[in-house]
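Predict the 3D structure for this chain.
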Amino acid sequence: MTATWLDRRRSRIDDLAGGRSLGSEALRRLRREPAAIAGAVIIGLFVVVAAFAPLIAPHDAAQPFPELQENLRPGSIPGPQPGFPLGSDQLGRDFLSRMILASQQTLLVGVLATLIGLAVGVVIGTVAGALGGWVDTVLMRVTDVLLAIPSLLLAISVAALAANPSQTTVIIAVAIVGVPIFARLLRGSMLAQRSSDHVLAATALGVRRPAIVMRHMLPNAIGPVIVQATLTLATAILDAAALSFLGLGDADPGRAEWGLMLAQAQAYLEVRPALAFYPAIAIIVVALGFTLLGESLREALDPKGRR
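Done. Predicted structure below.
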C-alpha cells in the first residue's frame, strides 16, 4: 500500500517537474485502462487475420468440396468435421475459410469508407472554420441536412442510386455518412482555435491567413477528429454489413463478406443457425473493439479528465 502511494507521488512529482505531452499522458492512461486494452487486442487480432487472410484460410473460400457436398441434404447442412472446423455452408464450401476471407473485405470497406469520409469532412470543416461568414453558413446548413437523416437510411439512399450495386458503391455510401460528422466536429474545433492566444499572436505578427490555418489552427484542432474516426470506423463496419445484408452491396454471391453471409443464412436458420451466428458475432465483436478503443482514447485525450 505504501509502495503504491509512493509510486503515485513520484509519478506526480515527475509530471510537475519535467512535464508530459498530451500524447504521452494519453498513452500512459490507455495502458492502464482495461477497456482500451481489450479494444486494442480485438482490433489487433482482426487486422492480423484480415491482412494475412489468404495465408491463414485453410481452403479456397470459393471452392465447393465433394466431402461436404455429399452430405448436403434439403434439410441438412454438414457441421464441424475433420479438416473443416466450422463445417460447410449451403453450397458445400468451407465455412471457416469464408469467415476468414470475409474479414479482409470488412476491413477494406470500413477503412476506405472512413478515410474518404475523413478527408472530405476535414476539407469542409477547415474551409468553414477558417473562412466563416456565408461560406460557413452554407456548408453547415448542408451538413445539418445530412445529419438530420439517420445514418443507415442515408447510406441506403445513396447505395440505392447505383444502377449496379458493388463494393465501390458501399464504400461511397458509407463514406458520405461520415462526412458531416467530421465536418461539424472539425469546424467547432477550428472556431475554438480562432480565439486562442497563439493564433492571435500570429495574426498580430502579420502571418498570412493560410499559414495560420495550416500551421496553427488545423494541427491543434484535428485531434478530436482523429478520435472520432476510430468510433466512425465501428459504425462504418456495421453500415457496410447492413447494406450487404439488404442486397445493396457486392452483387457477386461468391464473394465472402460477413453481411452477405448473414443474408444468405436467413433461408437456412432452421437447418443450421450457425451460418448466421458466426458472421453476426464477428461483426459485433469487431465493432465493439473499435468502440472500446475509441471511447477510451477520447477520455484519455480529454484535458478535464487528466489527473
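The chain has one domain: 24-53+108-305.
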